[in-house]
Every structure is written in structure tokens, then in C-alpha cells.
Design brief:
The protein is mainly beta. Helices cover about 10% and strands about 55% of the residues. It has a 5-stranded mixed sheet, with no helix packed on it.
């Protein structure tokens, strides 16, 4: 009898699951295959919005800014006002899906120091939202302070996967 009840229950549950229509709000899970850096170097940046972010050394980050590449290079002058970074595209499925990414910036040995707070950071993490197959995402530094000479390594991550890396060498002019 127990065997009949178990089989009967399984058949009913299988029928219910099969009969369910997907909800209108369900979408396939986004899959990031890779990140491609499409340009890097010095930029002229038009700053848009700024949001407070106490996790960052500066205490804030810029959003929705626009940049124009002025020089394709990985050698950056460590001069106040220098703006450098890169653009990247997300390759995966489904196209148009929004996915969280983050930029992890590793600074040279000794880190960067915020002159206003005295706080020192060896790295910062900048959250971003990217679109699979969309226009390139833009990440940049607007150097007002903390121009530490040496190699700066910028990584693009999705969850626990490092998908791209770009190194810049900041030099004294």
C-alpha cells in the first residue's frame, strides 16, 4: 500500500510541475563567458553623477560618466588631474541581460593615502552593472590625489571569477 501511495504522489507532483507555465517575470539565468577590454589609456571625462561609498578610499564614486579616449597607452603620468582607465564589453547570454560586475583596483606597494582622512588602501572595489552584449562599460580614475607611481592592476570580476585584467604604470613626469 505504501508503494502505491508513493507512486501515486510522484505521478501527481510530476503532473503539477509539468503543467506549470513559466511566469512572465522569469528570465533565463545570465551567463558571462568573458570580458573583453576594448580600449585603455588616457581619457577626457565628463563627470555626471556621484554617489557616496564609504567602502572606497575616496568615500565616493562617479556614475554615468562619459569619457573620450585621448591616448591609447598603459603608461600614465602621475599628475594631478590625469584621467585614465578602460572600456570593456561583456560577452555571454542572454544579450541585454544586466549583470553585476566589480572592478578591483590593486595599488602599488604602500597603497594610496587619502589626504583628507589619512586612510590608506592597498586596493579598492568598485561595483558596476554591465549589460551582456551592450555598449562598452567605462571605468576610470580621476586623479585629484594619490598619484602613486608604480603598477596599478585593474581587474574585472563577476562573483568569484576574475574575467579581465589591465595594468597601468604610473610614472613621475
Amino acid at each position: 500500500m505504501k508503494k502505491i501511495v508513493v507512486v501515486f504522489t510522484f505521478i501527481i507532483l510530476a503532473g503539477v510541475v509539468r503543467g506549470q507555465a513559466p511566469s512572465a517575470s522569469s528570465t533565463p539565468e545570465a551567463r558571462i563567458d568573458r570580458i573583453q577590454i576594448v580600449e585603455k589609456g588616457l581619457y577626457q571625462v565628463e563627470l555626471q553623477g556621484q554617489v557616496e561609498d564609504p567602502k572606497l578610499l575616496s568615500g565616493h564614486r562617479y556614475v554615468n560618466s562619459k569619457g573620450h579616449l585621448t591616448k591609447d597607452t598603459t603608461t600614465i603620468p602621475a599628475v594631478k588631474g590625469t584621467e585614465f582607465g578602460f572600456r570593456y564589453v561583456v560577452i555571454g547570454e542572454p544579450k541585454g541581460a544586466k549583470v553585476p560586475t566589480r572592478i578591483v583596483a590593486h595599488y602599488p606597494p604602500g597603497g594610496r593615502q587619502n589626504p583628507n582622512t589619512g586612510k590608506i588602501a592597498l586596493q579598492d572595489e568598485f561595483p558596476q552593472t554591465a549589460t551582456i552584449g551592450g555598449a562598452p562599460n567605462f571605468f576610470f580614475f580621476n586623479m585629484r590625489w594619490g598619484m602613486v607611481p608604480g603598477v596599478w592592476t585593474l581587474e574585472v570580476w563577476s562573483q568569484d571569477r576574475k574575467l579581465a585584467e589591465q595594468k597601468f604604470t604610473l610614472v613621475q613626469p
